[in-house]
């Protein structure tokens, strides 16, 4: 305890809640000039206040007046010690932001201010008493009529709740800051500390949204810093019953800001009624007052501005002079020409041709005038010449004529106009004339007459593109199931076929004799001859196995070499680097003179490299095998999609891999294959791919019947897309020496095209459809399963689902 004051514990506070707003150091909590009944002071040091904000435990602080606040000591007692006021978090924040290091004062006035304030209150009370006495002396019938009387306070009028809520705020402000005039004319503040004039505690949160207090138990803080508790909310039924019992409930409005009901005064209700009627709030205001011009314009020669006139307003402009000279020169030289006024003709030809008029030439249209009626002649005359009047015999002959050839008017002679009868066909002719005017076109539209044949591209005749296969010459019968794949030996003497009946057959092409049959035991998916003529080995894929069969063709020396090549001493599971290969096992077949490559999954296709040592097998991944060393590689471990077909480049170390959506090109010249290009097919699903013998063009078949031609040097998009087949395309093939390519489909047809590739890069390939080959029968919805060209002749072999292999020749 000090000499001049008492100490008290400063509460621990934190900056929480929506009321953490900045306030000044001398008025942290009080608004509208109102203070509590007795002024209170809180003085503390900045360090202790900062500890309070940070949440540290507060220490006792001495509450005394130190004389450093600009508001001065409270009342006339400078050393009066007041009870402690616990600061709120926003008070501390206002103290810290405003930078008052010594004190935080809430209220306080000097002696002179208090004395003046007492005088003004006394004058205000005196003036109010006089006003009450004056109003009592005036009789009730002499009260002037305003915009609304007391009788208007009936229940029948409905007042907009929103309008009342907006108005009550302004009326309360007027009550808080209301002023009356005293006897001496001076303005006195209507403010008092007595219990009679006390106003209920108001919310002091300012412009903080009320939704911030939805989850709180209070709605804000009053002027003394205490929380304003929310009132218990009543349901709609209780509110309705309370309003029905209270006769003055229609005068009350709910104040969300202070969470209370407020009774509207008479003045406020009058103002609201005037506003709802679209009038001004006060009756003594004239909204249509005459306009008074503050400036006298008459007899005022001086300008509004006192600045001197610039010199440029009195001197001719050099720029305008140059512009005028340019225009004059352009007009003299004829660069600028003026349009002459049009002279309207005084006369016009009534029966002239309107198609040559000046107006139509101006529109630059081939104008067709409306058809004009035929000018009357001697036959239509009332009194024609004798030679125009037909005799009775001629009139009888008219009746025997057809109606179209019969004359519409037969001339007659009348003595006067009074004896001329009405024309029988007058109305009909007028109607036909109106139809002619209505249906006649006013402008001639130039239509381009194009021969449809001229729109077709100029293609060479098919006779000039011979030879190409067109007729079925030979059939190879013997299979009992669908023939899924065929392959022609490189010399063109033998053809191999694989079927779903589990057999592989080798045929002689020219005679159709079946040379040899192998019983595989499973459906054969693909067969492929080795491209080397000295190595007649046949690769067969069936299920999860790939068989390298010795066909027995060739001389004894070749057979000895083949037997050495197709011999495996023991299953090889290691490569040159010592890595374990578990994808494929190379084993010797027990019954057949062949090598068996056992895969983990089913093999769908087998393709040879042009050198005859490497070949590809398609499983869910792509594997490359080397026959001479019995090795298997998996160079493309990451494929963007499942491989559907794959083929080697005929001359370079490039691999084409076709997935369901596109064709990807890889370079195999390095140790790890590198991606070169992706061909965007734009089809639903790719089914097959073939490479031109030159290696620069690719054709792709799809399962939606489209065939795409790609020019590798041109673009990655199709050069041509041919919509030929109605069903899935099963295979596409190029001829090795002739400019031919073909496609087979499940619609039991095979298309033959002429595809010429020029050595000149500036000339595009020529594609001409030649022939549609038919002959296969539909079996379970499948048609032609495979097609291959003869290596030397322009012949095409097709394998069908009807277990027949056909040869088409020219």
Automatic annotation (TrEMBL):
Alphabetical GO CC annotations of the entry are:
nucleoplasm; PeBoW complex; preribosome, large subunit precursor
Asked whether the keyword Lipid metabolism is assigned, the reply is no
Pfam families linked to this entry: BOP1NT (PF08145), WD40 (PF00400)
Can you say where the WD repeats lie in this chain? 476-517
**Entry's PROSITE patterns?**
WD_REPEATS_1 (PS00678), WD_REPEATS_2 (PS50082), WD_REPEATS_REGION (PS50294)
Name the residue ranges with Basic and acidic residues bias.
Answer: 77-89, 126-164
Query: SUPFAM superfamilies from the xrefs?
Result: WD40 repeat-like (SSF50978)
Q: Which GO terms describe its biological process?
A: maturation of 5.8S rRNA from tricistronic rRNA transcript (SSU-rRNA, 5.8S rRNA, LSU-rRNA); maturation of LSU-rRNA from tricistronic rRNA transcript (SSU-rRNA, 5.8S rRNA, LSU-rRNA)
Task: Give the location in the cell.
Answer: Nucleus, Nucleolus; Nucleus, Nucleoplasm
Q: Where are the stretches annotated Disordered?
A: 1-39, 64-211
Spell out the InterPro entries in the cross-references: BOP1/Erb1 (IPR028598), BOP1_N_dom (IPR012953), WD40/YVTN_repeat-like_dom_sf (IPR015943), WD40_repeat_CS (IPR019775), WD40_repeat_dom_sf (IPR036322), WD40_rpt (IPR001680)
Question: Which domain of life, per UniProt?
Answer: Eukaryota
Domain BOP1 N-terminal span(s) in chain numbering: 213-469
- Write out the biased-composition intervals (Acidic residues): 185-199
Report if keyword Metal-binding is assigned.
Answer: no
- Quote one Gene Ontology molecular function term: ribonucleoprotein complex binding
**Where does the secretion signal sit in this chain?**
none
Task: Point out the coiled-coil segments of this chain.
Answer: none
Keyword list (alphabetical) reads: Nucleus, Repeat, Ribosome biogenesis, rRNA processing, WD repeat
Give the family per the record: Belongs to the WD repeat BOP1/ERB1 family.
This chain's function reads: Required for maturation of ribosomal RNAs and formation of the large ribosomal subunit.
Q: What is this protein called?
A: Ribosome biogenesis protein BOP1 homolog
**What is the species of this protein?**
Colocasia esculenta (Wild taro)
